[in-house]
Specification:
The chain has about 450 residues and is an alpha/beta fold. It has two domains: about 220 residues, 3-Layer(aba) Sandwich (Rossmann fold), CATH 3.40.50.2000; about 180 residues, Glycogen Phosphorylase B (Rossmann fold). About 45% of the residues lie in helices and about 15% in strands. Strand 9, helix 12 and strand 10 form a beta-alpha-beta unit. It is globular.
C-alpha cells in the first residue's frame, strides 16, 4: 500500500517519534496503530505510557517503551468513574512526562534524535513540556471530526442551552446541525466542572500544536473538516481508517473469545446482529433487562458481548434473566469479549448494535455493516446523530433502552426495507474507505504529507 523511496526511508532512520496515548482501550488502539504506521515509514518509535493499563512491550518488539509513574492508588485505579480517573491522570502525569521527555532528549543518543511528540489531545499539558524543550507537538484526536467540533463549541453550547437541556432535549442546536440539545456532550462525573475545564484546556492547547491528526477519512467528514480548518490554523491530517492498515488485536486489554467466530461460521449470511458497547460503558440492571428482552422479542440471531462490569455491581451472566437465556439459547451467543474487526467482517453479521464510540463506528463503516446506536456519553452522542441523520447508515434509539423500541429497531435494521437501504449506503462508504487508502487516495496522500511534515522538523526544505 505504501511505497516511500528507500532514500527517504533511510533519511528517516535517524528520527525518533515519542507517542503518548491516553491509557484507555479506545485511545490506546489508534495511538499504537499510528505508531505502527509511522514505523512502517522508517521512523523509530518510543511509547510513553502510564502504569495504568500498561501494554505488554513484547507485542511490539520494534518499539521502545517508557513507563511513567501515574501516582494512582489501587482504589483510584479501580474507580468506575472514568472521567474522574482521567482528571487524576492529567494531574499526576505532568511531572513524570516532563522528566521522561528530558531524559530521552539528552544528547547521549546522537544516532536517533527525537524530532517530535505525538500525544493524545486530552494530554493537553504535554504542549507546555514540548514548548519548554522546543520540540514540535502533534495532536492525535481519537474521535470523529464532527464530535471534536462539538467539544470545541462546548462552552458556548452550555451557556446557550444549559438552562433547558433537560426540558427541551429534542430542540435543534442551531450552531451545529444536525445536533439536538440531547446530543450536546455531557460529562457525568462527580468532578463535572473540573472536566469541562479540562475540555477547554484540551481545545486551547491543541490550537498551539504544530499539527493535528484524525483517524477518519476526508470523504466521510469533508464539510466538518472545512469547519475545523477555520478554527485550527495548522496542518491537519486525516489518514484513517487506521485499522485497515494495522489491526488493533494486539492492543486489546481483554481476552478475545474466538469461539464467537466458530459460532458465526454456523449462521446464515447477514442474519446475525452483533451487540457490543465497548470497554467502558456501564448500565443498571433495569436497562440490561430491557436490552435482553428487546433482543429476545426481535426473534433475530445475535452475538452479544456482555463485558464483566457492564452492569454495575453484578456478576457475569447473573445480570441476565434466566428466562431470557432459556428463550434465546438456540439463536443467541454471549461472550465476555470478541475479536471485533473479525466479527464485523464475517459474512454472517448483518448489523451492529453499538455504543457509537468512534473506533467501533469506523470499523462498522469499513466493513459495510449498518448500525443501531445507543450512545452513553461524550463523543458517542454526536457520532450516533451523524450515523442516523447525516450518513443515514443506522438507527439511533431515541428513547434510551426500551424493549419495544429495541425490538422494532432490530427488525427494521435486519429484515425490513429500511435496513437494506442503510446497508446499501454504508457499502458505498466502505468502498470510499477502501479507495482513500490506495495510491492517489485522500488518506494515502495525507499520510505522505504527514511523513514529509515530520521529516521537515529535522530536514528543513
Amino acid at each position: 500500500m505504501d511505497s516511500p523511496s528507500s532514500a527517504n526511508r533511510q533519511r528517516r532512520n535517524g528520527c525518533r517519534i515519542v507517542l503518548f496515548p491516553l491509557p484507555f482501550q479506545g485511545h490506546i488502539n489508534p495511538m499504537i496503530q499510528l505508531a505502527k504506521i509511522l514505523h512502517s515509514r522508517g521512523f523509530s518509535i518510543s511509547i510513553f505510557h502510564t502504569r495504568y493499563n500498561f501494554p505488554d512491550p513484547s507485542n511490539y518488539p520494534h518499539f521502545t517503551f517508557h513507563l511513567l509513574s501515574d501516582g494512582l492508588s489501587e482504589l483510584e485505579a479501580s474507580t468506575l468513574d472514568t472521567l474522574r480517573l482521567v482528571k487524576l491522570l492529567i494531574a499526576n502525569c505532568v511531572e513524570p512526562f516532563e522528566q521522561c521527555l528530558a531524559q530521552i532528549l539528552s544528547p547521549d543518543d546522537l544516532i536517533c534524535r527525537v524530532v517530535c511528540v505525538v500525544s493524545d489531545a486530552m494530554w493537553y499539558f504535554t504542549q507546555a513540556a514540548a514548548d519548554k524543550f522546543k520540540i514540535p507537538r502533534i495532536v492525535l484526536r481519537t474521535s470523529s471530526v464532527c464530535s471534536f467540533l462539538a467539544f470545541c463549541a462546548l462552552p458556548l453550547l452550555r451557556e446557550r442551552y444549559l438552562s433547558y437541556m433537560d426540558s427541551k432535549m429534542e430542540a435543534a442546536v442551531l450552531e451545529l446541525p444536525p445536533i439536538k440539545v440531547k446530543d450536546i456532550p455531557r460529562l457525568e462525573t462527580h468532578d463535572g466542572e473540573d472536566m469541562y475545564r479540562a475540555i477547554e484546556n484540551m481545545v486551547r492547547e491543541t490550537k498551539k500544536a504544530s499539527g493535528l491528526v484524525f483517524n477518519t477519512f476526508q470523504e466521510l467528514e469533508e464539510p466538518e473538516l472545512a469547519k475545523l480548518q477555520e478554527q485550527f490554523l495548522m496542518p491537519t491530517f486525516t489518514i484513517g481508517p487506521f485499522h485497515k492498515r494495522f489491526s488493533a488485536a494486539s492492543t486489546s486489554l481483554f481476552t478475545q473469545d474466538r469461539s464467537s467466530i466458530s459460532w458465526l461460521d454456523a449462521q446464515a449470511p447477514g442474519s446475525v446482529l452483533y451487540v457490543s458497547f465497548g470497554s467502558i460503558a456501564a448500565m443498571d440492571q433495569q436497562k440490561m433487562n430491557e436490552m435482553a428482552w428487546g433482543l429476545a422479542d426481535s426473534m433475530q440471531p445475535f452475538l452479544w458481548v456482555v463485558r464483566p462490569g457492564l452492569v454495575r455491581d453484578s456478576e457475569w451472566l447473573a445480570m441476565l434473566p434466566d428466562e431470557f437465556l432459556e428463550a434465546t439459547h438456540d439463536r443467541g451467543y454471549i461472550v465476555k469479549w470478541a475479536p471485533q474487526q473479525e466479527v464485523l467482517s464475517h459474512p454472517a453479521v448483518g448489523g451492529f448494535w453499538t455504543h457509537s464510540g468512534w473506533n467501533s463506528t469506523l470499523e462498522s463503516i469499513c466493513e459495510g455493516v449498518p448500525m443501531i446506536c445507543s450512545p452513553f456519553f461524550g463523543d458517542q452522542m454526536v457520532n450516533s446523530r451523524y450515523v442516523n441523520d447525516i450518513w443515514r447508515i443506522g438507527i439511533r434509539l431515541e428513547k434510551g433502552l426500551e424493549r419495544g423500541e429495541i425490538r422494532d429497531a432490530v427488525r427494521r435494521l435486519m429484515v425490513e426495507r429500511d435496513g437494506e437501504e442503510m446497508r446499501q449506503r454504508v457499502m458505498c462508504l466502505k468502498e470510499k474507505a477502501g479507495f482513500c487508502l490506495n495510491s492517489g487516495g485522500s488518506s494515502y496522500e495525507a499520510l505522505d504529507a504527514l511523513v514529509d511534515f515530520i521529516s521537515s522538523f529535522t530536514f528543513p526544505a
